Amino acid sequence: MKKYLTGLMLAAAMTATAADAPKAPAAASAKTASAPAATTASAASAAEAQTATPQVPELAATAYIVRDLQSNQTLGAKEANTQIEPAALTKLMVAYLVFQALDNGQLKAEQSLKVSEHAWKAEGSRMFLSPDKPVAVADLLKGMIVQSANDATLTLAEALGEGNEAKFVQKMNDQAKRLGMLDTTFKNATGRAEDGHLSTVSDLAKLAGAIINDFPKYYPLFSMRSFTYNSIEQPNRNLLLYRDPSVDGMMSGHSPTAGYNLASSSRRNDRRVVAIAVGMESPESRAAESSKLLNWALQAFDTPKLYSAGQIVTQVKVYKGEATAVNAGFLDAVYLTVPHGEGKNLKPILETEQPVVAPIRKGQVLGKVKLTYEGQVLAEVKVAALDAVEEAGLWGRIRDNLVLWWKQWFG
Is 218 helix (H, G, I), strand (E, B) or coil? Predict the structure, then answer.
């Protein structure tokens, strides 16, 4: 049975991202208090957590969440997993699937789509399509994202659902499961109120982050302030696009039962945060409360880069291998969000599996680093082999078998 060896970090270099960025995390003691872990951008298996301090400002929203996309940490939340009506924020999933279809060639931006009678008669926000005038996918996307146009949304949904909205909705639900949106069920593509059409702000934040991370070349569509079709210009209802130059998306929503909703994202000082706020009373309120949430997250926290991709943090002893040790580190850069100015108080603890026996493949997980702050584990990041180690010859394996036998029985 494998054991874990807990030790000090041997090489922990932090890349400063601001004038007051903290220095490298100090070595830590071998024991820490048990606490939930927050996922980092390079460690998909780490559990999520909400940083304890500082306190979120009071917001006039029924539910909200704000996340740092580099560290993938939740910084503040209220009723994050309570099901709500997503209203037009549903269209974020439609956008995700259309972007996916553009990438795999199922759709082309210049391709013209026929507008069905079902789409033409769609109620609510529209870009005023006509059933006798095919429309380019690129224009339909702009109409859906900028104008929240239901007729454009249904035209795209039917194109990817074999002419049937219900078939496309099944694709929406399948994709939601793949993204880990476990509390979301879509019943339609536009977000119209319907029994069982529900999501959570936590799930919607996952979706918003997936769009930004998976489809960066299409994300600028969310920053368009207006779009003109058929000589009719309509503005983007995300008021933050006009008020805050750091806000570059994403989408607004509203219904009589859901209230006013907003998914928004801000990029400032090499950080990106995403906020979802729902259940507000007016367009002005959803802008003001979302701005308050974004600014709090960006001002109250830092997200320093702790380790670079491929950086060697330690060497792990190898048995029965051509080499006696293997370089270990992180395959991707590691970021962590902490209260402003507190990066210097982060402490890393390295735990490696023992014994490590060849052959070892590059990328093989060898252990983990626990990043602690004030006695709490904020993140657990997998440490991987940065090189491959082939198995030793016969005599080398026999020698190390004897060594392992001795260690097992005599410590």
Answer: coil
C-alpha span between 270 and 125 (Å, rounded):
35
> Residue 28: phi, psi to the nearest 5?
-120, 165
β-sheet bridge partners, residue 403: none
**How far is residue 235's CA from residue 248's CA, in Å, rounded to a whole number?**
15
Pick from 345, 347, 350, 339: nearest CA to 382: 350
pTM of the model: 0.83
Q: Quick one: which of 374, 335, 380, 370 has its CA closest to 16? A: 335
CA distance 50 to 203: 15
Nearest to 264 by CA among 279, 274, 253: 274
Report d(CA 269, CA 76) in Å as an integer: 20
Number of helices (H) and strands (E), helices first, in the chain?
A: 9, 19
DSSP 316: E
Tens-place pLDDT, residues 269-325: 889 999 999 999 999 999 999 999 999 999 999 999 999 999 998 999 989 888 999
Q: Name the phi and psi angles at 301, rounded to 5.
A: -130, 155
- Please, what sign has the CA dihedral across residues 102, 107, 113, 119? negative
Beta strand pairing status for 334-335 and 305-307?
antiparallel
pLDDT (tens digit, 9 = 90+) per residue, 156-173? 999 999 999 999 999 999
d(CA 323, CA 326): 7
What lies within 8 Å, CB to CB, of 71 at 6+ separation is: 38, 39, 40, 41, 303, 335, 336, 337, 379
Task: For tokens 């949106």, name the residue.
Answer: 181
